[in-house]
Amino acid sequence: MNNFSSLFIGILFTVAFSFAGIVISSQIQYGKLTPVAMEEGEMTYPRPPVGIAEQGKEVYLSMGCIYCHSQQVRRKGFGADFERGWGNRQTVPRDYIFQKRVVLGTMRTGPDLMTVGERLTDPSWHYLHLYDPKLTVPSSIMPQFKFLFKTQKVKDAPSANALKFPAGYEGAPAEGYEIVPTDRCNDLVHYLLSLKLNYELPEARFSE
Amino acid sequence: MNTISPYPESFQEKQSIVKPYKLVFAEIDASMRFPVVFFLSCALVWLIIGTVFALLSSFTLHSPDLLPNWEWLTFGRIRSAHLNAVSYGWANNAVFGVGIWVMVRLCQIRLRYGWVVITAGVFWNVAVVIGITAILGGQITSVEWLEMPKYVTPILGASFLMIGAWGIVSFLYRESSHVYVSQWYLLAALFWFPWIYVAVQTMVIWFPARGTVQAITNWWFGHNVLGLWYTPVAIGVVYYLIPKVLGRPIHSYYLSALGFWTLALFYNWAGVHHLIGGPIPVWLVSSGIVASVMMVIPVMVTGINHHLTVVGYFDKVWHSPTLRFVVFGAMSYTLVSLIGSTMALREVNVVTHFTHFTVAHAHHGIYAFFTMVMFGSIYYVMPRMLNREWPSALLISVHFWCVAIGITIYVGGLTIGGWIQGLQMNNPEILFPDVVKHTIPWLMSRSLGGSLMALGHLVFFVHFTWMLFSKRVKSGPTLFRELKEEGVSSR
């Protein structure tokens, strides 16, 4: 092994081999997937995301939500994703083609969020949960995102989007004040509500 | 030839005629003094910064309301600040200091143009500072292992090329007639890292591929940054230091070669096991599992080769500060890799995936193996750079026990806790909030282990600084206990 060129060729070959085999071949195999319809002439899926949810995704990224929440559903029988109601079917590559940044995640300190927009449809639940997670889930260890809200004086009438705390909540604002979500918080909740897996694809039908 | 030594016979003969080889090494070391001390000092500062973020993250996870509710202190960001500080700050600077020192020494040349390397090193460290500040400020990419915003990464890449090229140029202009196994590992790592880094930056950050091709590229990199960068450097250093300190050759040349080439072939493919059950083609997952299991070959081969070199000399290992850390690291490498191969099996992965078990495993590799080897190397390198001994054997001992016990609690606790978490998560009768609740005691054990490790780091940092600025020159190496037998001059 004293010869530089034979050593170097081996070093180069091994990494080129895996790069070609794993990365390039994936790109060739399914790097150009497009939306499909189940029947000719029907709506194609997945649908492209709407603007406000896209902005919310930026907030999701900047808070590092991915480090505790995954967005992928494993097939029925492999883990308990189906039984926990995290999705009626496994996720497949086509589900992710509109995501500029794919946030599969590898950690479930908190629950999977692939279908959170179907499971928890009430926006006020999400606002309260982000403000103080223990309000909605008493044993939660999620950080509070109070900095995504602002406290302001109640003007003529309480704002429509002011948080409605349960009676006796210690963190409730003083008389005459209210807590409202910032724009970033609104975007984030829109994003969370947009996370759904309510369509079938030819390669992924709902499980029974 | 069944055995090899870090310095070939021809060299020893030649040098004994011209000059005692210790003198030659002293000249080589002197030529590297400023770059190596620079990198190792930076590494130590990053170790402390990374540890602060580690503790903050760890405590936040079981006591979420502990820290003030400031945006930059939210868990997702401080946890990423920790990862980037220890990975790009501590680990890379340690590699630049120790890895290239080993390379240049084995090439038996004097380092020229050291200022180029230091300049590149300054750029590297400034880029890491900017990157981590940006992460805390919210410009985090949320791509694991690649959190820094994209405007920083070209600076990192360019600095790396300048530092890495220096190792490669040393190899090309080597004066040694013989190439030692450590040089294969180091040379390979210096080629592999820029390849995988440029590829992943291109396909995930700058020009994102469509859909889950991103995830595959991400984990091809995420696993290879350990497998093709930190691991080969650390193994190369182990191959250098064990024979050096013990004064006896590596057991088998053939095992070294087998271990190197099987690692190069299989580690490359193993990363996809991070996506088992995920939305990617099944054949890719299967290839990742096969490669992960095949990793048993290089791991066992290297482990056996190291073990047979050390066997019968454990007394020396125990009394040498360098080898106590390095052998701890080498043994952890065998253990963590075998656990890793097991975790890639679908039946095991269905439990461990998405849990703290994986976090324990990552720290088992990057800390109990890589970082311990680097600690040991720094204890060896620094006296040769400064011509000065470590001031206190006691502080080295405190450092060792704090980090050794700390990482054992850390890995032990999260491995058990993660396994329980995985079993409960797969049992739909246990409500998810209860699964979370049951992880809390184990997360606390992590904070306990982590605090011990932090104490060890603090002791190490104080000791390092003390040595750097002390004027005292002590005769003879600092050992845990004076050796009875003659003829051992190394630490």
Order of helix and strand elements from N to C terminus of chain A: HHHHHEEH
Rg of chain B, Cα atoms, Å:
22 Å
User: Using DSSP, what is the number of strands of chain B?
Assistant: 0
Total helix count of chain B? Answer: 16
Mean pLDDT of chain B: 91
Principal-axes shape call of chain B: globular
Shape of chain A: globular
Strand order of the largest sheet of chain A: 1-2
Q: What proportion of the residues of chain A form beta strands (DSSP E)?
A: under 5%
What is the structural class of chain A?
Answer: mainly alpha
Secondary structure category of chain B: mainly alpha
Number of helix segments of chain A?
6
Q: Outline of this structure?
A:
The complex is a heterodimer of chains A (208) and B (491). Chain A is mainly alpha-helical.
Layout of secondary structure:
The complex is a heterodimer of chains A (208) and B (491).
Chain A: H1 4-30, H2 51-62, H3 116-119, H4 123-131, H5 133-136, E1 149-153, E2 177-181, H6 183-194
Helix pairs in contact in A: 2-6, 4-6
Chain B: H1 9-18, H2 21-62, H3 75-107, H4 114-137, H5 153-172, H6 181-206, H7 213-246, H8 253-266, H9 282-294, H10 296-310, H11 314-319, H12 321-343, H13 346-352, H14 356-386, H15 393-425, H16 432-469
Task: Outline the structure in words.
The complex is a heterodimer of chains A (208) and B (491). In chain A, helix 2 (51-62) crosses helix 6 (183-194) and helix 4 (123-131) crosses helix 6 (183-194). Chain A has a domain at 51-194: Cytochrome Bc1 Complex, Chain D, domain 2 (Orthogonal Bundle). Chain A starts with a helix and ends in a 14-residue tail after the last helix. With 208 residues, chain A is mainly α. Helix content of chain A is 33%, strand content 5%. A two-stranded antiparallel ribbon of chain A has the order 1-2. Chain B is mainly alpha-helical and 491 residues long. Chain B has a domain at 14-178: Four Helix Bundle (Hemerythrin (Met), subunit A). Chain B is 75% helix and 0% strand. Chain B contains 16 helices and no strands. In chain B, helix 2 (21-62) packs antiparallel against helix 14 (356-386), helix 4 runs antiparallel to helix 5 (153-172) and helix 12 runs antiparallel to helix 14. The longest helix of chain B has 42 residues, at 21-62. At the A-B interface, helix 1 and helix 2 of A face helix 2, helix 3, helix 6, helix 7 and helix 8 of B.
